[in-house]
Amino acid sequence: xxxxxxxxxxxxxxxxxxxxxxxxxxxxxxxxxxxxxxxxxxxxxxxxxxxxxxxxxxxxxxxxxxxxxxxxxxxxxxxxxxxxxxxxxxxxxxxxxxxxxxxxxxxxxxxxxxxxxxxxxxxxxxxxxxxxxxxxxxxxxxxxxxxxxxxxxxxxxxxxxxxxxxxxxxxxxxxxxxxxxxxxxxxxxxxxxxxxxxxxxxxxxxxxxxxxxxxxxxxxxxxxxxxxxxxxxxxxxxxxxxxxxxxxxxxxxxxxxxxxxxxxxxxxxxxxxxxxxxxxxxxxxxxxxxxxxxxxxxxxxxxxxxxxxxxxxxxxxxxxxxxxxxxxxxxxxxxxxxxxxxxxxxxxxxxxxxxxxxxxxxxxxxxxxxxxxxxxxxxxxxxxxxxxxxxxxxxxxxxxxxxxxxxxxxxxxxxxxxxxxxxxxxxxxxxxxxxxxxxxxxxxxxxxxxxxxxxxxxxxx
Length: 461
Description:
alpha/beta; 461 residues; 45% helix; Rossmann fold; six-stranded mixed beta sheet; five-stranded parallel beta sheet
C-alpha cells in the first residue's frame, strides 16, 4: 500500500509520510495508489463484527505495518472510550423507508470526533517515535475545530491552530473550541467565510519553506487519514441494517465532500449500497455540478446549516482523479481553471460517470425548519439542521430505502431548533460546563501573513 498525489501519480509515499504531510507538496491530495477490495467471504466476516473490530480490520489494510497489531488495537479502543454509546455509530429506524445513522456520540457531539479521536493518537505515536513535534492547522465550518481541540489538547509534541469564520458558526460550536484551557490550543477567528479559512490553510502548505520550518500538518479532511477512518461507519451502517433492506441509498449532508467520499471508497472496496446522495443547502455547488457538469464558485450564503456553507469542496478533487481516468494533466488543468476563473467543466463522459454513483439534492432554509418540526411532531425526535437537510432531500426525491447520516447533536444548533419547535435540545450533562468557562479567541483579518507570524512565534523545536 502506497499513496500518491492527485496531481502526481509517479512519486509514492508511505502512510506514515502522508499522515504528517497532510497535503501533497504539489498542492494535490493524497489517495491510495490502489483501493483494497474485500472478498465476499471476508465481507461476511466483517459485517458481523462490532464497530471497533471493523475499524481495526479496515485500518490495517490502509496503514499496513505503520502500527503493530497490538498498538493499533490499543489506539482504537482508547479513541472510542469517551463515546456515550457502545455501538459508537448506532443505526435507528425512523420509519419503514428510512434509517438514521447517529454519528454524534463523541465528546464534542459531531461526526468529526470519530476520525479525530483516532487520528490524534496516530499522529502523536508517529511524532513520539521520531522524537519530533508538529504544528497542526485546520479550518472549520463549525465541528472540525471542536473535535480537533478535544483530541489534541495537552499533547506535548503538538501545537494546534484552528481557523474559523467569525460570527458564522453557532455559539455551542464556538465554545467547544474556545473554552479549552490547554496551552497548546490556538483558536483564531477570521474576518471572512469558511472558504477564506480553507484557502489560508492550503496556501500555508504551498509555502514549502514555511511549512517545513514549523513541521506543519493538517487534520481537515484533506488529510487522507480522516477519510480512511470515516470509511468505517459505512461498514457499520450496513452491518446494522436489516438484511431485507439490501443496497440502501446513503444520504449524506455534506459541504467539503469528505464524508461522502469516504462512502465512495467503501463502495469501491466492495460494500454493497445504492446511490450516494449529496444533500446540501442553498450553497449547492455540488448539486449544480451533477446537474450541469459545471463546477462554478458563487458567493457562500450564511444559513441555519452552517457546516454546509461552503463553495469549494476540497475533497471533490479526489473523486475527479477517478472521473478523469487518472489523467494528471487534465485534472491539473481543471484545478488551475478553478483558481483563475472560479470554475471548470466536466466533459460528457466524466459527468456520466459522476451520475452513475452519485445523486444530489438541496432544500431551502425554511424547509429545513419545517423538517425539524415535522420529525419532532411525528416521531418525538429532535434533529440538527444538517440531518434535517438530508431528510428533506430524501423526502423530496422519494427515496424508499435509505440511510441518513446524522452528523451532529441538535443541541449544537439551538437557534434553528428553537425556531422550529420552540424548545432547545439539551446538551448532555458532561458538556454543559462550556457555558461557564472563559473563551480564548484571537481575531485576525483575512491575511495569511498574520497567521504565519502567529505560528512562527509559538513554534518550539
